[in-house]
Write a structure and sequence with these properties.
single chain; BirA Bifunctional Protein, domain 2; 230 residues; three-stranded mixed beta sheet; globular; 11 strands; alpha/beta; 28% helix; eight-stranded mixed beta sheet
């Protein structure tokens, strides 16, 4: 039986207030709080993991660099990249952190396989790769048994800013995007397909948000939208 989850499509929202809202959501949730998945894009920003080495930020220029509490090293977010944040009670779902990472990775592999694109994760570096080039990056945090942060899938974003960092701490790591492999695709077309794959992989079903939670999220300054993928 599928378990319910509230799915929110937030549009393009600044990274830092969204991150702070994820932290607050995690700290305030109770054993009865419904799980949520947020799908969004961010304006240009470099984010550094909790134990990330600032030396991997080579030449950020005018793009802000935000030190965060997720795992991993440095990555880039920008318009044209689908970012998905699973805010899940892992204990209630009986999922380990590795289970969640695998689900996020395999959902990308499933998505690309449907389009005839061979992709695979790597055991030594979380994320998804196509012919040795990275197409999706993962960085998570688990606190009080619940997850936040998530996965960033390169759809049709400008890849040039990745040249200003050592992506994920790897020098000369090549990045790729869906639009290069399947021209014409954008976040709007990829988002529902990926979310449907992720929900299936996790055994979740999108449901409407309770009105009280909707109001609370709106007051926190994060745009809200509920969606059931078809």
């Amino acid at each position: 039986m599928s378990r319910p989850v509230i799915l929110r499509e937030l549009g393009c929202v600044d990274f830092e207030p969204t991150w702070r809202r994820m932290q607050a959501f995690t700290d305030e949730r109770t054993p009865e709080t419904p799980d949520e998945i947020w799908a969004l894009e961010h304006p240009p920003v470099f984010t550094l993991g909790l134990n990330g080495d600032p030396a991997h930020v080579l030449a950020p220029g005018d793009v802000p660099v935000v030190a965060t509490d997720r795992g991993g090293q440095v990555t880039y977010h920008g318009p044209g990249q689908l970012v998905v944040y699973p805010l899940l009670d892992l204990r209630r779902l009986r999922l380990g952190i590795r289970d969640l990472v695998t689900a996020l990775e395999e959902s990308v592999v499933m998505l690309l396989a449907d389009w005839g694109i061979a992709a695979a994760p790597r055991a030594d570096a979380p994320g998804v790769y196509v012919a040795g080039e990275k197409i999706a990056s993962i960085g998570l945090r688990v606190r009080r048994g619940a997850s936040y942060h998530g996965i960033a899938l390169n759809v049709d974003l400008d890849l040039a800013p990745f040249g200003c960092i050592n992506p994920c701490g790897y020098r000369d790591l090549a990045m790729t995007r869906i639009a290069t492999l399947r021209p014409g695709e954008g976040v709007g077309s990829v988002r529902p397909v990926y979310l449907a794959a992720l929900l299936r992989r996790l055994g979740l079903e999108a449901t409407a948000a309770p009105s009280q939670r909707e109001a609370s999220t709106s007051r926190a300054g994060v745009p809200t939208s509920d969606h059931r993928p078809r």
